[in-house]
Amino acid sequence: MTFSQDENQEHYPEDIYTSVVIGANGIGKSFLLRAIADIFSFLDGQMEERVYKKSPVDYQFSIKYMVGISTYEFTNIDRIEPAGRARRNYMHTICKRDGEEVRTGQMVAPARVIASTMTVTDKFTTVNSGHYIYKGIRNENSPGTTGTRTMIRKTVSGLLHSLDVKEGFREELADLLEHMGLRPRLEVSYTVRYRNTFLKPDMTAEQMCDIFEHQDKSFENRKTQLWGTKNFQKLRADREKLERVVSFMRNLAERNVNVKKVVLTYSLLEDPQRINAERDVIEALSAIDLLTFPSLKVYKGDTNFGFDESSSGETHLLCQLIGIMSDIEHGSLILIDEPENSSHPNWQINYIEWLKNIFNHYCDSHFVIATHSHFILSDLKPESSDIIALDRGEDGIVRDVA
Questions:
Q1: Is the pLDDT of residue 312 over 70?
Q2: Is 335 exposed, middle or buried (0-12, 13-18, 19+ CB in 10 A)?
Q3: b/e burial code for range 336-371 (CB count within 10 A of at least 16 → b)
Q4: How far apart (Å, rounded) are the C-alpha atoms in residues 162 and 316?
Q5: Is the whole model's pTM more than 0.70, yes or no?
Q6: Three-class SS of residue 76?
Q7: One-character DSSP codes across 135-151
Q8: Beta partners for 191?
């Protein structure tokens, strides 16, 4: 299957390249994207001489791609070699650069391989590895678990990390909100848990340690330990960080003496210094479960609404695009599975244009989109797009019939 007709391109266009894989449900679009992600993870592992408990690829493949002006090929061959009296099968990999066979260490892979999906039954691997990043709504520690909280938690985590390390990220984020018809304002909020137990003006590190060590004193009716107990043991070992956390809680208690429900709200675009200064403490408090799951709020005109209050289409689209924006680098491969889920047809029609406008700084990246919506195809530009139409022949083999 060919995802780009422009194999002789010696410079990047002024537009990101998009390849759209379309076909009926059950034809294998999601498995195709999973295979691409797994093959690059396999290559990444070989380049780093990573030892796998189980190889991500146990089938034959051959993939050809461009990075810069060079063309690379990564192929494996099922060989049978004698091993004593018995014979055994093993997979032998071949690497080529511009047609010449090279060592694995001489290969160059995409800077990032981002697997993006809002589908609860997506086929991607959920564990991040090397340059592979999973941006889906399944829980990385429990792939069978999905939900809005997991999606928002991942979105906030990506936001906070990128605000700290990615130059120009705030401008990109404001541009994204504008394309969505929203004001350039994004707030993240946390509510303090166990306010009466931990939020005291005279709280000390020793007192916090005592509460976690003797939980039956403060939580008489609780039958299980606090969810953050294991993480608190790690925090306790870092005395300096523990003191910062306790100092933060004392100051918060002093400012909210008569407040029953204490909420921390950060404006990510309007007050970047504050969130940067307090980010490590917020992450520590979240890890020991003294803060609730974060909530996100956006503004449309004079009205604000949380992600959990917006339509599923808006929530999914915002989380997906923010997730990609948080991790994309120049020279990335972005694999997007069924972006039309819960989206209005008008949004599907504009989807490719949004990608091209929002990510125009990354025109050396390649977006591969699997869909069964013909609305997605309506805005493709022939000079920077390709269509792969999958169909199953009478022999049972799936082919590109575009």
A1: no
A2: buried
A3: bbbbbbbbeeebbbbbbebbbebbeebebbbbbbbb
A4: 19
A5: yes
A6: strand
A7: ESSB-SS-TT-B-HHHH
A8: 263
DSSP 325-378: HHH--TT-EEEEE-TTTT--HHHHHHHHHHHHHHTGGGTT-EEEEEES-GGGGG
Structure tokens at 364: 């050396």
**Residue owning tokens 């599907």:** 348
Query: Could you tell me the pLDDT band of residue 10, with boundaries at 50, 70 and 90?
Result: very low
pLDDT score at 8:
52
CA 112/CA 59 separation, integer angstroms: 23
Which residues in 81-115 are b (16+ Cβ under 10 Å) and which e? eeeeeeeeeeeeeebbbeeeeeeeeebebbbbbbb
What's the CA dihedral at 33, 372, 135, 126 to 10 degrees? -50
Average pLDDT over residues 20-38: 92
In the block, residue with structure tokens 């003496």: 257
Lookup: tokens for 167: 């130059």
Nearest to 12 by CA among 329, 365, 364: 364
Cα distance between residue 74 and residue 318, in whole Å? 35
Contact (Cβ atoms closer than 8 angstroms) between residue 380 and residue 20: yes
Q: Tens digits of per-residue pLDDT, 59-111?
A: 889 999 999 889 999 998 765 555 555 544 456 889 999 999 999 989 999 99
Contacts of 15 (CB under 8 A, 6+ apart): 356, 360, 363, 381, 383, 384
Q: Is residue 25 within 8 Å of residue 372, measured between CB atoms? A: yes
Give the 3-state secondary structure of residue 216: helix
Greater pLDDT, 375 or 13 = 375
- Chain centroid to CA 160: 13
Show the DSSP H helices in 139-257 as ranges. Answer: 148-165, 169-179, 195-198, 205-213, 215-218, 229-237, 239-255
Residue type at position 47: M
